[in-house]
Amino acid sequence: MIPVPALALRGLAKRFGDTVAVAGISLDVPAGSFYGIVGPNGAGKTTMLSMATGLLRPDAGSASVCGVDVWAQPLEAKRTMGVLPDGMGVFDRLTGAQLVTYAGLLRGMDRATVARRTVDLLAVLDLAGAADTLVVDYSAGMTKKVTLAAALIHAPRLLVLDEPFEAVDPVSSSHIRQILAEYVRTGGTVIVSSHVMDLVERMCDHVAVVAAGRVLAAGTVDDVRAGRTLEERFVELVGSPHRSEGLSWLHTS
Amino acid sequence: MVAHLLRLRLTMLGNGLRRSTWQVIGLVLGALYASSVFVGVLSGLAYLGRRDAELATTVLVLGGSLLVLAWWFLPLVAFGVDGSLDPHKLAPYAIPRKDLLLGLALAGVLGIPGIVTLLGVLGTAVVWARSPAAVAASVVCALVAVATCVVGSRASTTVLAPLRTSRRFREVAGVVVFLPVFVVVPALGWASRELEADRLSFTEFGVIISWLPFGAVWAVPGDVAEGDLGMAALRFAVAVGVVVVLVFTWSRALDRQVGAPVRGGTGGARVRGLGFLGAVRGSVVGAVAARCLTYWVRDPRYASSLAVVPLLPFLLVFLDAGNGTALLFLAPLAAFLLGWIVSADVAYDHGAFWLHVVTGVSGRDDRLGRVLAAGVVGLPVTLVFAVGSVWWTDRWADLPTVLGTGVAVLLSTLGLSSVVSARFPYPVPRPGEGPFASPQGSAVASLAVQTCGWLVLGALLLPTTVLAVGAVVTGTAALGWATLATGVSSGILWAVVGLRVGARIYDARSPELLQQVLASR
Fold first, then answer.
1. Name one GO cellular component term (chain A) (predicted).
2. How far is CA B299 from CA B162, B176, B266, B520, in A?
3. Are B225 and B132 in contact (CB under 8 A)?
4. For residue B244, with 0-12 CB atoms within 10 Å meaning exposed, 13-18 middle and 19 or more buried, which class applies?
5. Measured between beta carbons, which residues in chain A are less than 8 angstroms from residue B275?
6. Which one-letter DSSP state was computed for residue B324?
7. Would you say A38 and A230 are in contact if contact means Cβ atoms under 8 Å apart?
């Protein structure tokens, strides 16, 4: 028997006006994997993840989380997912503690559990000192971290994180990576999008290369990079538009 | 370089228009409206110029002064100054300061307000059609006047720019600076009635203004027309001096601003504990309501609406003809203001609304939570205002009518708002913007949605209104009690219907709603 994938996309497609953002993506994210999605800017990563997490209705195709269709049974599918979207903002007039608490309460959790987990999450993410500060006064990195806490509070089986390391300092970043690795070790599934190849290569066990709304390669990291570094393989797949002669006038000597 | 800056500004203007059909429609309608008003005003002035040159000068001086003051200070309050050519964004390009100043000033004219001002001010030349010398003076003065407006607005915003980067200042200023308007307007009305005896005549007032920095330039053509060239030269010197001082101030402030790094707000506000959220035992409705209440208090866009409410009684007392009828509108008016805020709720959330979508909050929980928060604020206010207004006017017989109308308005508005915010989120200031910063080119869309909403609301309230008018006009007690009964029952009915319909719409299209509020800016 084939185990049910944590996330299964089938022919997912979306266009905005004349622009095709996602052109029919099919992808299986195995349960228990640490899955990286890499691609150049504008490849459709965010659009794809938005459709997978119930934030953007696809034009065609389906997405299911642990076998539950996100668009047919949204409530059940959303219960098993923790999501960190990119560039949508948060309720930033709440304090960090209030925001995480709010996320827990919206999930229908009881007060005592929410309170306990909020304290734990803020402590682990190094935000305990800023728990009573309004999120609007947080730095970009702190905002990412508090949003991650809000995504973790209901102990989801699948975490979908869009650009979780952007603007996060190296110390916090390695800290978050440890937390995510531990989460995967204990049976969780993580999907991260990023355009930092090094990070994905070190952190993830699976990777999908996305460009122009399509999956160019997907599988375990070792399969995809085929003996080279992920970055070399990525540039080869996506194709570098730059000519080798470059900017001769920039050479100062 | 100056030409580059101007071309950049024009390109931005064009791109902005291309992005939104609504903005083009708004622009065309606005232009039609403005030009029709302006033609009317100018022909009036031209007539005045032929009949009574002194009065025409006074009108020009007062009107012109208001225009200049608006240019200087409105951008501070509304924070609507055009930021597309932010000196900070230009700082890396090492533009010579003289070019930067000239370019930014001319670019300031090249917006909609700038063009309208320029055309309008040039148009005032028709007043002096009979005196060629005055027409020439008028054209020269028009250019000086526009420079005063544009450079003044740049100077005031640049000088205060360091303050404006602090979040707290923006929030407080945005609300506080606007409040005096609500007090000053009725106070002026009152003063004009009381002070008729020993008044400062209109003309004398105009003469004083015509020596002030913002008024001098407007009086010059009149002096020329009357042949008083010495006076004209003096006033013109004042006007040009003002522009020089403004340019100097602006230039200094610009140096400081471009040199200084961009800062965020300094020092975060700290709030102990969880506030309203701490009181929620574990219900989704409660959580939504608690979060909304937190926003009602903490977000300036909500707080500014709340701040207007305590001023309503004063406004109505001044408007009142003397028999207390105006005050009867207090409770329904406050109920409407507070209830209608909910119609912008999801739009106010903006992108943060994703949290509701991703956690799978049901339409019932979302709608009910938002309405409860507004109700917690709105119901006590409505009741207190209803009782207070009949107590103040000593019209206790009208209490059932006022109560019935107030409750009907509050509940119906909340019900209707629940539908509007789920189906037709109209553009609002984005999180972190001043409460009076109107989003670019959204006025028409926002007005269309709200006007339709108000028409529907009028229809929903019709039975209650008819009974209420009957009760107040005839003074029949039975009609008053009928208003109360009808108001409360119809209010509950429309609230329930609105919540149900709103919840169904929300359940069907919360992802679309998220994309809609994200796209509107």
1. plasma membrane
2. 22, 14, 18, 19
3. no
4. exposed
5. 98
6. S
7. yes
- Using a cut of 0.95, tell me whether the model's pTM lies above it: no
CA angle A50, A51, A53 (to 5 degrees): 65
Chain-chain contact of B511 with A85 (C-beta, under 8 angstroms): no
* Nearest chain A residue to B266, by CA: A137
C-alpha dist (Å) from residue B63 to A123, A131, B66: 61, 52, 5
Nearest to A91 among B167, B269, B352 (CB): B352
Q: Are B177 and B76 in contact (CB under 8 A)?
A: yes
Taking the C-alpha atoms of residue A50 and residue B388, their distance in angstroms, rounded to an integer, is: 51
Pairs across A and B, CB distance < 8 A: 120
Short-list B453, B434, B457, CA closest to B77: B434
Residue B378: name the closest of B293, B321, B454, B316 by CA. B293
Best CA proximity match to A162, nearest among A185, A188, A190, A136: A190
User: Residue B178: what pLDDT?
Assistant: 56
- In one-letter notation, the amino acid at residue B353 is F
Residue stretches of chain B with pLDDT short of 50: 79-81, 197-199, 263-267
Given this model, what pLDDT does residue B100 score?
Answer: 81
Check residue B83 and give its pLDDT: 56
Who's near A218: CB < 8 A, 6+ residues apart? A27, A206, A207, A208, A209, A224
- Contact between A187 and A218 (Cβ < 8 Å): no
Contact status, residue A31 vs residue A44, Cβ threshold 8 Å: no
Q: What is the CA radius of gyration of chain B?
A: 27
The amino acid at residue B468 is A
Distances, alpha carbon B36 to alpha carbons B19, B43, B120, B334, in Å: 27, 11, 12, 35
Burial of A219 per CB tally in 10 Å (0-12, 13-18, 19+): middle
pLDDT of residue B94: 72
Domain definitions of chain B by residue range: 52-82+110-259, 279-519
The token pair at B216 is 């001098």
Which residues does chain A have with pLDDT short of 70? 1-2, 240-246, 252-253
Residues of chain A positioned with their CB less than 8 A from the CB of B432? 92, 136
Contact present, B101 and B459 (Cβ < 8 Å): no
Nearest by CB to residue B518, choosing from A88, A114, A150, is: A88
Please compute Rg for chain A using Cα positions.
19
The C-alpha atoms of residue B467 and residue A72 are separated, in whole angstroms, by 48
**Dist. CA B274–CA B423, nearest whole Å:** 31
Please give the angle made by the CA atoms of A239, A244 and A250, to the nearest 5 degrees: 125
The predicted-structure confidence for B449-473, as pLDDT tens digits, reads as follows 888 999 999 999 999 999 999 998 8
- Does residue A47 contact residue A63 with C-beta atoms inside 8 Å? no
Q: How far apart are the first and last CA of chain B?
A: 31
DSSP secondary-structure letter at B198? T
Residue among A2, A29, A12 at smallest CA distance from A208 = A29
Residue A59 touches partner B, C-beta closer than 8 Å? no
Residue type, B104: L
Provide the pLDDT for residue A53: 95
What per-residue confidence (pLDDT) applies to B267?
47
Contact A97 B274 (CB under 8 A): yes
Contact partners, residue B414, CB within 8 Å, separation at least 6 = B339, B342, B371, B374, B375, B378, B495, B498
